[in-house]
Design goal:
The chain is of the alpha+beta class. It folds into 4 domains: 188 residues, Jelly Rolls (Sandwich), CATH 2.60.120.260; 356 residues, Glycosidases (TIM Barrel), CATH 3.20.20.80; 113 residues, Immunoglobulins (Immunoglobulin-like, Sandwich); 88 residues, Immunoglobulin-like (Sandwich), CATH 2.60.40. The protein is 21% helix and 33% strand. Strand 39 and strand 40 form a beta hairpin. It is globular and about 95 Å long. 48% of the residues are buried.
Length: 924
């Protein structure tokens, strides 16, 4: 009767807490999410914001309460800088009853960044690392009394400044001390363990956030809690897969002897040995209450399917279930037996991954990934946080949209960049499901870093916790301990040369002696690189800092060119693996909320304010001037819409040229990776992204569907002014060689009919390879015929016939410009060149997705037709055209437009579509 009364009281208190505060997430070992009814106020009590939910940040709370305008609009990045320089307090009420439980812990999964926690009058502790989980034992305070839980935040801007001032003046400074002035940012972010981009970057605004950006949970249990699971999966003998499962158990915050049984199951897959299903554990946790247990499982290979990257096969995933049950569950009558049981389910994939670096014939080292023993050409991009505000970066729908956009563009790899975040569990689950391999940096970027003991201690905890959490995902292919810090030190980016030995020692202490061993101890499944770019194994031979970390004969390289003509494919040689490259453009005119109210000059000033590259807009303008007709009057009404269009066309052409050269250089330069910079954005601003903030595709992202297509035809003019044409085939099935036919059509710009057609038949293309179709002196050919290159271009089409009698199947198409577009003669410049008609429009009430079929008609060939919705359609979101920025050398083509349309309220008509072409500029 007494036990029943105690349990009844516990339930009543939980219900009271729910009414006051939050909801219950049911688990074997109980967890209570503290996510409702928080109050936020500044330390001076000027602003009080009630009824806040977690995850949360002060910028988001202030925006939602309309105390400040949107951080992402107008000049609010600087107008709201006071927010990040103030102190803030989060508070809520907490009531619990826990005397029948051995452990009651208050766990903060993510606090950004410097905070002191109080429960009632008791100080629980402090936080100083936004990437770390903090646990506090509050069992003795769970007596039924309601206490105020208070989290007092200190400004990260002030904290970083104070740390800089308190450093030993005899030591060299931790550089760079401040970002370039054009960033409008804050100083000393490298002294604190916070998202490095939150103090501003060359693509992002300063948003020095504070808040509780991950869940806060009250954890009740009486035995051991399973915190994390890791796996090492390898092919064993006798047609078996071997799975080493690592189980990380916790018993509060202190050493405790435990006695119980771990049970292992792979749902739907029998273990090869039934004895592996259970493991008896009688051990003692360490001083922090942690214990690592390992169990080996085996399954027959024919009982599971392999996991493959996108484009190479299925993404087969299996649920691994692990349960901990204390011995007391079966031997003693317990008031709450479920809290002596803990369980966890993760999804695993059966695949092997190797980063191969064997000797190459040119004297360097290869650098490529083999998945399931198949060499993979890595195609993809670089991922920055989906929002500059950490609490918004976990927006599941938006993350899903971005990752699906990567998958649909035939990407098979993303690089999680080191100046952002260890991403949400949702992000990694989606990467697993979509077959997106992850090159994963640890969160250190473009800086030197301190190596004082306190800093190294928090880094160890950060690395340990996050690698344990992420490790089991089959999508993770490789770790790198930092972004660009090796090359920054070697090339003296931050004037470190005068104290090189000191900075070198700090580099080795942080990455070689601290981060590297922590990652390797947890993850025996993957290679750990010291930096990116780096010479890989060669950098290790050169004492961790290579003489040239950008050597194209080793490792990975980052390549940027801002002032040579990036449209010229002859510029690009290729490295072993190009993990960063790209070029800037402006977001669409209609994406700027300010475009409706600002005049041309005002909008230009805002764009310049948001251009954080120290080079400004000059590279964008220079590349347009090289190749395209340029609008002459910056004060004209149509100046920015035209310039934005040309910038996106130029960006797409540059990344297209570079990527296609890299894909073609698989055989001679051993290039096996092309990850352009960058996939996404954090605000509407000039940047390298292919997807604008909010989800609008730039021309580049539309083009990527062809650029990264698994079957593609690549053509470009090389350094010898010879046309190279390559057949690219990434597919594995069927395993036999294919025979492709390639047609090269020479066109005048003003004619639908080709001047000449040249056929290359029965080109043998093996699976997972590239094949040279032809190398041709096209300019010599034109000279013999008396044809001017600037008046002509090449259109190429690849087809395949599966049987001699079958209709040829088109595989790919491409184009080659033979001279500058600005010098084109003979193309139509008629203002009525293009007509767009709506053929059909359907909106689904179930998913709020509008699909519109458009018929694009042209009176003469149209160059780079750019379709866009008018600003009046602002309620439509994530609108994408199936083709855009295209050459139209046929009178009619069909284009699909899809948009998210909440409530299916919009009726898109032809007048809602604006059209631009290069043609209309040629006559100016």
């Amino acid at each position: 009767m007494l036990d029943a009364l105690k349990f009844f009281l516990f339930v009543i208190l939980l219900l009271v807490t729910i009414m006051l505060n939050q909801h219950v997430t049911s688990k074997r070992s109980a967890e209570l999410d503290l996510d409702l009814l928080w109050q936020i106020q500044d330390s001076k009590k000027v602003y009080v914001i009630p009824n806040q939910t977690l995850p949360s940040g002060v910028y988001t709370a202030l925006e939602q309460s309309m105390i400040i305008g949107s951080l992402l609009e107008e000049y609010n990045d600087v107008n709201t800088s006071w927010v990040g320089q103030s102190d803030w307090i989060y508070r809520t009420n907490l009531s619990c009853l826990a005397k029948d439980y051995n452990y009651v812990l208050l766990t903060f999964h993510g606090v950004d960044t410097f905070a002191t926690m109080f429960l009632g009058e008791r100080k629980l502790g402090t936080t100083d690392n936004m990437f770390v989980r903090y646990r506090f034992d509050i069992k003795d305070l769970c007596d039924g009394t309601t206490h105020e839980l208070r989290v007092q935040f200190r400004s990260p801007v002030v904290e970083a400044s104070e740390r800089a001032k308190s450093r030993d003046s005899a030591l060299p400074p931790i550089v760079p001390e401040c970002p370039p002035g054009v960033y409008h940012g804050h100083c000393h972010v490298n002294l604190i363990r916070k998202m490095q981009a939150s103090f501003a970057w060359d693509w992002g605004l300063a948003a020095p956030s504070m808040g509780i950006w991950k869940p806060v949970r009250l954890e009740y249990y009486s035995s051991a809690l399973i915190r994390d699971l890791t796996v090492v999966i390898s092919e064993a003998e006798d047609n078996l897969w071997a799975i080493v499962v690592g189980v990380y158990l916790e018993t509060g915050l202190a050493s405790q002897k435990i006695d119980g049984v771990l049970t292992f199951k792979i749902i739907g897959v029998p273990l090869a040995n039934d004895n592996e299903q259970t493991l008896s554990v009688v051990k003692t946790t360490d001083a922090q209450g942690e214990l690592y247990i390992e169990q080996r499982l085996t399954v027959r290979r024919n009982s599971v399917e392999r996991w493959w990257p996108n484009g190479y096969g299925k993404q087969a995933l299996y649920s691994l279930y692990v349960q901990w049950a204390d011995a007391a569950v079966n031997s003693v009558k317990l008031p709450h037996p479920d809290t002596y049981i803990s369980e966890k389910v993760i999804r695993i994939g059966f695949r092997t991954v190797q980063l191969n670096q064997e000797r190459a014939t040119d004297g360097g080292l290869m650098f490529y990934f083999k998945i399931n023993d198949v060499p993979i050409f890595a195609k993809g991009s670089n991922w920055i946080p989906s929002s500059v505000l950490p609490e918004r970066s976990y927006d599941a729908n938006y993350v899903k949209f971005l990752l699906y956009a990567a998958r649909d563009a035939h990407m098979n790899m993303l690089r999680v960049w080191g100046g952002g975040l260890y991403e949400s569990d949702h992000f990694y689950r989606l990467a697993d499901e979509l077959g997106l391999l992850l090159w994963h940096d640890l969160m250190f970027a473009c800086s030197m870093y301190p190596t004082e003991p306190d800093f190294l201690d928090t880094v160890r905890t950060e690395v340990r916790q996050n690698v344990r959490r992420i490790q089991y995902h089959p999508s993770v292919a490789v770790w790198a301990t930092n972004n660009e810090n090796e090359v920054a030190l070697r090339q003296d980016w931050y004037k470190t040369q005068a104290n090189y030995s000191v900075y070198y020692e700090q580099y080795v202490e942080l990455y070689v002696r601290t981060v590297l061993p922590e990652v390797e101890a947890i993850d025996r499944w993957r290679t750990v690189l010291l930096s990116s770019p780096s010479n890989g194994d060669q950098s290790l031979k050169e004492d961790y800092i290579a003489q040239n970390p950008q050597d194209p004969l080793y490792g990975d390289v980052h390549y940027y060119n801002y002032f040579l003509d990036g449209w010229n494919a002859a510029l690009y040689r290729g490295g072993r693996f190009v993990s960063e490259y790209g070029f800037q453009s402006f977001p669409a005119f209609t994406s700027w909320p300010e475009a409706r109210s600002y005049g041309t000059t005002e909008l230009g000033e805002l764009i310049r304010h948001r251009q954080h590259s120290p080079l400004g807009n000059e590279p964008i303008l220079k590349m347009i001037e090289y190749n395209l007709p340029v609008p002459s009057d910056p004060a004209a009404v149509g100046y920015w819409p035209t310039l934005i269009y040309l910038s996106q066309l130029s960006q797409a052409m540059i990344v297209k040229a570079e990527t296609e050269v890299y894909r073609a250089r698989r055989n001679d330069c051993y290039t096996m990776g092309a990850l352009y910079w960058q996939l996404n954005d954090v605000w509407i601003a000039p940047s390298w992204s292919s997807i604008e903030y909010g989800g609008t595709f730039k021309l580049l992202h539309v083009w990527l569907r062809a650029i990264f297509a698994p079957e593609h035809l690549v053509a470009f003019v090389n350094v010898k002014r010879q046309l190279e044409v390559w057949a690219i085939r990434d597919t594995l099935d069927p395993s036999a060689d294919e025979l492709w036919n390639v047609e090269v059509r020479l066109h005048r710009y003003g004619s639908f009919q080709p001047v000449d057609t040249i056929n290359h038949e029965a080109i043998r293309v093996p699976p997972n390879s590239v094949a040279l179709v032809v190398q041709w002196d096209v300019y010599g050919y034109l000279a013999k015929k008396g044809l001017r290159p600037a008046d002509h271009l090449l259109l190429l089409v690849a087809t395949r016939s599966d049987t001699p009698d079958a209709q040829p199947q088109q595989l790919a198409e491409n184009f080659v410009l033979l001279d500058k577009l600005k010098d084109v003669r003979g193309a139509s410049t008629a203002s009525t060149l293009v007509t767009v008609n709506v053929v059909s429009a359907v909106c689904s009430d179930r998913n709020n997705l509008t699909s519109v079929s458009l018929e694009v008609s042209v009176r003469a060939p149209a160059l780079f037709v750019y379709l866009q919705l008018t600003p009046e359609n602002s309620t439509l979101k994530q609108c994408q055209f199936s083709a855009n920025g295209f050459l139209q050398f046929q009178p009619v083509r069909t284009v699909q437009l899809t948009c998210v349309d909440p409530g299916c309220r919009n009726k898109i008509q032809a007048r809602d579509i604006t059209v631009r072409t290069v043609n209309e500029l040629l006559g100016h």
